[in-house]
Amino acid sequence: MRRVTGLKAGLEAVRDARRSGAGSIMTDGNGLYDTQLTPDEFAQRVITDVRNEGDVAIRRITAALDGQVPDDQPLEIPQERIQAAVGQISTQTRAALELAVERVRKFQQAAMPKSWSDVSGEFGEEVRPLGRAGVYVPGGVAPLASSVVMTVVPARVAGVDEVIVATPGRGNDDPHPAVLAAAAIAGADRVFRIGGAQAIAALAYGTESVPKVDIVCGPGNAFTTAAKKAVFGDVGIDGLYGPTETAVIADETTDPVFAAADLLAQAEHDVVALPVLISTSASVADKIEAEVQTQLEELSRRQIASKALGNGISVVVESIDEAIQVANRLAPEHLCVSVQDAVRFLPAIRYAGGIFLGEFSAEVMADYVAGPSHVMPTGGTARFASALSVRNFVRYSPFLNLSENTFLNLATDAAELARAEGLDGHAAAADRRRIKLTGE
């Protein structure tokens, strides 16, 4: 991790911390196309093919990228195989998934927005669930059963009519049993063995097998993210997610073992992950950085984590207040405030996807069982975006139910503003009603 010292240097370092690698990624899709393409270009080609050819394109693209789907096998995984997967995982894993589902459900139920109206009933908002949600679950790096829980359960709590999961298979086989079991336990209605940009296209536009959805949500790699960006407008999306990132604020009360473990927990995700340590003294930073190197040697994914640490920054400032300034500039996906009485600093934190207060509110708890969805804004988008939640799966319709008296009290001003804009038809729509009511 690169060390920088001082508030000004720290603010500058985190401002420039993110380097988008997507533009340097090129692929022809293992010979799928005749030229090397950027993620955006590749996603557009895939989307065009899926829209034009439907299931045929999905099978061809999947065979090139993820493994063959036998012609006699449907893209949709039969319910009996999904239910059978529950029996293929250990009883401990099943119990952990059931606990995660229950805690995420409780959290999302508490977050569920409600319809409302004023005391007169003349205006308000109706909150309604979406009709069909598509959940994308990556499968290229690890069997992310937890991502199933974190995306399906909020949709279920929102009251979405149908929740569909798309996830790649393992070569020529079904997705990992833990992923299928999670889909069953979380309450997904259907699961399709489709990954990558082709899954996003299928969910967004529909094919012979895959129904069109109202929203596509979930994390993914550069190609699925490019596809989500391309289909937005034709379908809703929850956000555009990049490499994972964690910032840890530490002082002399911080346990170096815990802080190092939190940094490595995210670093092991991806070689482009971003770990950031913000310490209140050089001695604090020294202890944590040394502990990171010690723990790194114990990780099975140490090569990945080591490369991610090369992206990392260790900022030394003079106080927790300065540390929070640095964190707010970074607007990280995860912000761990690993100090005593951390809750007193909560009001000062403006920009973070998720905030983890104290050493036992470890971010790993939110990854799996604490309650919030672990799908959180990355790349600095926490400045304006929020973690995936039940709110992503509802829409808000304001309504008016005005009485004649309220209408008369408002109509003259409405017509005046309409005429000021040169919109005589708008003004007339108010005036004609007013004249009928008043007899003028």
Characterization of this structure:
It is a single chain. With 440 residues, this protein is an alpha/beta fold. The protein has 3 domains: 79-237, Rossmann fold; 242-384, Rossmann fold, CATH 3.40.50.1980; 402-438, no CATH class. Helices cover 45% and strands 15% of the residues. The strands form 3 sheets. It has a 6-stranded parallel β-sheet with strand order 1-11-10-9-12-13, sandwiched between helices. α9 links the parallel β7 (215-217) and β8 (236-237). It is globular and about 85 Å long. The N and C termini lie far apart (77 Å).
Structure summarized in a few sentences:
By secondary structure, the protein is of the alpha/beta class. The chain contains 16 helices and 14 strands. Strand 9, helix 10 and strand 10 (274-279) form a beta-alpha-beta unit.
List keywords for this structure.
Rossmann fold; 440 residues; alpha/beta; six-stranded parallel beta sheet; 16 helices; 3 domains
List the helices and strands and how they pair.
Elements: E1 2-5, H1 7-15, H2 39-53, H3 55-65, H4 79-88, H5 91-111, E2 116-117, E3 123-129, E4 132-136, H6 145-158, E5 162-167, H7 177-186, E6 190-193, H8 196-205, E7 215-217, H9 222-231, E8 236-237, E9 245-250, H10 256-267, E10 274-279, H11 282-296, H12 302-311, E11 313-316, H13 320-330, E12 334-337, E13 354-357, H14 363-368, E14 394-400, H15 404-420, H16 424-438
Parallel strand pairs: 1-11, 4-5, 4-7, 5-6, 7-8, 9-10, 9-12, 10-11, 12-13
Antiparallel strand pairs: 2-3, 3-14
Helix pairs in contact: 1-13, 2-3, 2-8, 2-9, 3-8, 4-7, 5-6, 5-7, 6-7, 8-9, 10-11, 15-16
